[in-house]
Structure formats: C-alpha cells, structure tokens
Write a structure and sequence with these properties.
4-stranded mixed sheet; 4% strand; globular
Length: 435
C-alpha cells in the first residue's frame, strides 16, 4: 500500500494541519486583542481602583503585560514551526532513522528516540526562558537570579527529570511491547501512581533541592493561621517560609503534598508585602479550594482524561495512517508474527506523536478549562470572605496585583480563553456582593 493511495493519511494530515493553523491563528488574534486593549486603557486607572493604585503602577503593569504577550506571540509562532518540522517536514522520522542506523531496532533505540527528542525540545525552549528571565523580568525589577543560579537550576531540573523520567519512559515502553493489547491500561495505572508519588515527594524531596524552607517563626501570625485552619478542618505538617526572593520579587503562597506530607508554604516576599490580616485572608482563599475539594476534583478529572488518552493511544498505536499522516514511516507488520515486533519499534514514535496531537487539538478546549478554573476561584473567594474580612482579601489582592504588575484592564475575550483567575474587577465585585 503506497503513501499516496492511502486516503486516511491525507485526511488526517489536513485535519492536523488545519487544527494547528486554527489554534495558532486564534492565539495570535487573542494576543493582539490583549495587547491593544491593555494599551488603550494604559492612560487612566480604572475608577474602581483609582483610590488604591497609582497611575505609575497601572502603567507599569500595562507595559509588563504587553511585553509578556508579545514574547508569547513569538514563542507560539516558533513552537508551531518546530511542531511542523518534527512532523510534516520529517524531523522526527529523520531522528528515528538516524538512531535506527546507530543502534539497530529494539528497546534501546526506542528509549533513545524519547530521550533525544526530550533533550532537543528542552534546548529549543531555553532561549525563551533566558529572555523572559534576564530581559523582561529584569526590566521590571522582578528577576533576582544570577546567571550562575539560573544554570544551577537548569542542571538540577535536568537531573531530576532524568532520574524520574527515564525509568518511567522505560517502563511504559516495556509495557507497550510486552503487556499485550491492554498495555495502555497498565501504563495508565503506572502514570497515575507516578503522579501520586510525585505529589508526595515534591514538598519534602524535590522542592528543597531548589529552595530553602524554614518554619514560620512569627508566633502571632502562626496562631492566627492555625486557628483559621482549625475552623476549616485542615491539617498540615507545618507552616513554612520559602526563600522565593532569591529568584524573583513575585509573591505567592501555596499548599503542597498529600496525606501527612501536606504543608503550607509562604514566599518570604509575600510576608514582606502583606499584613497578618491580609495573609490570613489569602490563606482562607487557598483553604476554600480545600474545602470545596477543587484540587481533588481536578486530580480525578486529570486521571479520567488521561485514561481516555491512553485508551486512544492504545488504538492509534496500530493505525499506519496515524504515523504517515504526521510525516513518520512506521515499522509495518507483514504477518501476525511480526505485530509485536512492529509495535515495539513504533512505541516511542506513537508516544511523541500523540503528545503533539494532544497539544494541538487539546488547545482548542482551553476556554472550557479556564472557565472551570475561574469558577473555582470565585468559590474560594466566597469562602475566604465568609471566614475573614472581605476588605482584607480585597486589599491583599490589590497589593499582589500591583507588586506582580498584573494588569487591571485585560481584554475580556482574552481573559475568557486564558485567565485561570477572574480579572480583578470581577473578583472585587463578587467580594463586595458577598461581603
């Protein structure tokens, strides 16, 4: 069967290319709307915030937002070109053929395909990370990293990714080759277990590799927070302060870990910017996510979607048009005896191509995910207002908006697509209503 005569190949190629162009076009259109809308409202602080934010801070946030949006536009175009190069222009096929010539077919060759692809992809992303950190973040006074620290972080991240990722990749490839037609079910179970293990290890093993954590030593603030957690029925291993200031001036707080390993972490920058009442209100918002089980719901949704994804991959693994349509020549089975051998020699290709397809088609569903996230944020705000003073939460959010240079005037449509948190105007209006 020739490539040209196999019509599903062309259908899939057209669908993939159309979805990629559509996604890129939407992203560029939304980004241009965002930049234009923010600049149009740069000259005047919105009336609802005029008594709380200076014109200088508002304009700084507008400029920072537009710089980030424009960089994102360039990165989106670059990513689309890289994706086309890997697929329709034959980059992944060339990599696969080169490694076949070097190692021969088999498990080692497939693992090498995954590793080389991951390394090249990471290297292609480095210039964007460097520019964002040492140009844009530096320009607005957020970056506190030195080149030495940035390099150390990059090396540590690479080592952690290799230590965790290589065994996982090897196990999945082995299951694809040896576990029969239901390999995808075993691989999904492995994936779920790996993610749960990662969440358990992160606060006590992984995070300390990059930051220092010390117990919160402000006794009055600690008592206030522990009282709030007791009212909310939340138990944690402890309250910790992280030295976020050694990398960035941005402020944050978060919950992390599972079971007995749960902990509350404050950036030291956050403690320097908010008073105790405002800190309590911010933590109450995070506890709202816990109270409404948002994290649990998202985790189960993620596992359910990944189950569907693995099942789809289990079917696509045997479809020749899936490979040909994305510019890759798969290993074909001449008879039933060759099926397992062909699957073993296509496993890495299937994993990589499927991740690319998901990134293209899945991106079209981003507005739905963003809407759900904003709904959860409104619910967490409502819980915080019920537990603390609404004015304290409003003041804390406005301080964080100002210190993080978050624009108060985003384009409404852009926000609907991309904002995981509601715009400040909407959040404050809801708080006032609940208050």
């Amino acid at each position: 069967m020739s490539y040209s005569s196999y019509s599903p190949v062309w259908i899939f190629t057209v669908l993939f290319a159309s979805a990629l162009v559509l996604q890129l076009g939407i992203e560029l259109w939304l980004a241009s709307r965002q930049a234009r809308h923010v600049m149009q409202h740069r000259g005047v602080v919105p009336p609802a915030f005029a008594h709380r934010m200076t014109l200088f801070a508002h304009q700084r946030a507008a400029d920072y937002t537009v710089d980030c949006v424009r960089l994102g536009m360039l990165e989106n175009v670059f990513s689309a070109l890289v994706l086309i190069s890997w697929t329709l222009l034959g980059g992944l096929d060339a990599l696969n053929q080169a490694l076949l010539g070097w190692t021969g077919p088999g498990f080692i060759q497939q693992l090498a395909v995954l590793l080389v692809f991951a390394v090249v992809s990471a290297l292609l992303g480095l210039p964007w990370s460097l520019f964002k950190t040492f140009v844009i973040e530096q320009r607005y006074g957020f970056n506190k990293m030195t080149a030495r620290l940035w390099l150390a972080d990059a090396v540590k991240s690479m080592l952690v990714a290799a230590l965790l990722g290589i065994p996982l990749a090897a196990a999945v490839l082995w299951l694809m080759q040896m576990a029969g037609s239901l390999w995808w079910l075993w691989a999904w179970a492995l994936w779920v277990g790996f993610n749960v293990l990662l969440m358990w290890l992160f606060p006590t093993v992984i995070a300390p590799l990059f930051n220092r954590f010390k117990p919160l030593d402000d006794i009055q603030l600690k008592e206030r927070i522990e009282a709030l957690m007791a009212r909310s029925g939340f138990q944690a291993q402890g309250l910790f302060v992280m030295d976020g200031s050694k990398r960035s001036a941005h402020a944050n707080a978060y919950f992390t870990g599972l079971g007995n390993a749960k902990r509350v972490v404050f950036f030291d920058t956050l403690l320097n910017k908010l008073n105790p009442a405002e800190l309590e209100a911010v933590l109450a918002h995070e506890l709202g996510h816990f109270k409404y089980k948002h994290i649990t719901k998202r985790l189960w949704s993620f596992f359910a979607l990944s189950f569907v994804g693995f099942a789809a991959l289990g079917w696509l693994l045997h479809q020749a048009w899936f490979y040909w349509g994305l510019g890759v020549m798969p290993a074909m089975a001449v008879n039933k005896a060759d099926i397992e051998l062909a699957v073993g020699n296509n496993s890495a290709l299937a994993l990589i191509l499927f991740s690319m397809v998901i990134s293209v088609f899945g991106g079209l569903f981003q507005p739905i995910l963003s809407q759900l996230s904003r709904k959860h944020e409104f619910e967490a705000d409502a819980y915080a207002v019920a537990q603390t003073n609404s004015q304290d939460l409003a003041n804390a959010l406005l301080k964080l908006y100002e210190d993080n240079a978050s624009t108060l005037t985003p384009d409404p449509l852009y926000a609907r697509f991309h904002y995981s948190h509601p715009p400040a105007t909407e959040r404050l209006a809801r708080m006032q209503a609940h208050g």
